[in-house]
Amino acid sequence: MAARRIASVSFVASLCACHAGHGITHIVASVDPDVATVIHVSWTTATPTTGHVEFGPTDAYGMVSPEETEAATSHTATLYGLTADVLCHFAVVAGDATSTDQTISTDPLPNGLPRFEVETPITDPDVGPLLLTSTINLDADHSAIEVVDTSGAPVWYRTVDAGVVSVRATSDGRGVYYVAERRHAREANALVVLGFDGTEEVFTIPEVHHDAIEGPDGGWVTVVSVYQDVDGTNVAGDEVVEVAPDGTTRVVWDAFENIPVVENTGWTASQLDDAADWTHANGLVYDPSDDSYVVSFYFTQQVVKIDRSTGATRWILGGLDSDFTFADGEEFGPQHAPDLMDGGLRVFDNRGSSKGSRMAEYALDDSAGTATLTWSFEYPGGAWTPVLGDVRRFADGGALGSWGIMGDIVVVSPEGELDGLLHVGDNQTAGQVSPLSSLYPDG
After folding, report:
1. What is the pLDDT of residues 190-232, one digit of tens each?
2. pTM value?
3. Structural domain harbouring 427
4. Which H/E stretch holds residue 268?
5. Residue 353 falls inside a structural domain
6. Which terminus of the chain, N or C, has less C-beta within 10 A?
7. Same domain, 71 and 123
8. What's the chain's Rg over C-alpha atoms?
C-alpha cells in the first residue's frame, strides 16, 4: 500500500467583491492509499453551502468534481481522472467563494500494474475520453481492472487475484462489476460489484464464469457451469442465472435441457481440470425489445436467444441446429462478445489460426431464416486470437474492440482502417473494452 501524501493549507479565500459570505478554510488534500491517481480534498466553510473542486494538470484546470447536493460547513470531494506521478492544480469553489490555486502530486503507479503503450494514436472523438478494460495473466490467474485514457495511461485501477475477462460500468456510474474467475478453485468464483471509491459487494457463486450484465429488474444476470455424465464423460454445460440484489438466484435456461450434447473440440481443448467443456458460455446481452437474453457459446459455435420469462429457446444462430442459413457461407465461430444492433447481431469472430480473427456484423432475417454478413474488420496481417476479443460500433461507423491474446485495444475508422492501437505486453491478454465519459456518476 502506498503511503498517503497529504497537502494542507489553512486560509480564508478571497471573496467576490459583490458578495461576502462563505469563507473557505482548512483545505486538506491527500492521495488515496490504494489508487495512486485519486486525490481526496476536504475543506470547511464559515456558513453552510455546497461546493465542488476544479482541478487539472495546470492552473487552467479543465476537470471538475460534482457539486455537493446538501449544504454543510464540512466538505469533501474526490478527484478522478488524473494520471500517475503528475502535479495536480486545484481550487475549491463554495458558493460565491473560490480558493487560490493549490497543488498536490499524484503518486507513482505500483510495480507490476500492466501498462498500455500507444502503437497508433487514437483520434476518434467517440472513443473515450476514458476506456474501461482488464488485463489478464492467464498463466498466473490474476488480473488488473483498469480505466485508462486514450494514451493508455491508467487513471484508476484495481488488481484482482482471479481472472477477469469482462468488466462493465454500473448503470449508476459509481463503479464497475465483474466475474472473478478462479480456474482451479471454481467454488470460490464470485460476482463482484466494486465502487470507484473502493466499496465492494461480493456474491460468491460457485462455477460462475466469464460474463455478467445488469438485470432488467435490478440485480445481475450471469452464466454458471453445470455438469452431467454423458456416456461416462463428465460434461460441463451452462445455465443462464439471474442474481437478485439480495444474492438469491433463479435459473432462466439450462443448456442440457435445450440443445443436444454433441462432442466437440471442448472435449480436448477444455481449460477445466475435470470435465469436457461442451458449451463454454462467454458473452451475454439483454434485449429489451422482447425481454430476452442472448448468449454466446464458444465450443458449440452458437449464439442462442432465450425468452426471459419462460426460458424457451427463441432461436439458435450458428453451429448445429441453427435456425438461420448463412449467406455466401460466411459463418462465424468460435466467437465471443455478442452485441445487439438494429436488425441483427455483431460478434467477435475468433475463427481459426489460418484465417485470423475479425469483428463481424450480421443482418438477421427471421422470416427468411438467413444471416448475412454486412460488415467486418480483419486485423492487418490476419492476427488471430483464440481467446477473448470484442467489438462495438459507433454512430459514425467506427468501431472499438480488443484483440485478446494479442494484448491489443483496437480502434477502426468509419472507412474500415486501423485508426488507433494500444498494446499491453508482459504476457498479458487484453480483456473486453468499453468507453467511459467520466468516473463521476453524472459524467
Report:
1. 999 999 999 999 999 999 999 999 999 899 999 999 999 999 9
2. 0.92
3. 116-436
4. helix 266-269
5. yes
6. N
7. no
8. 24
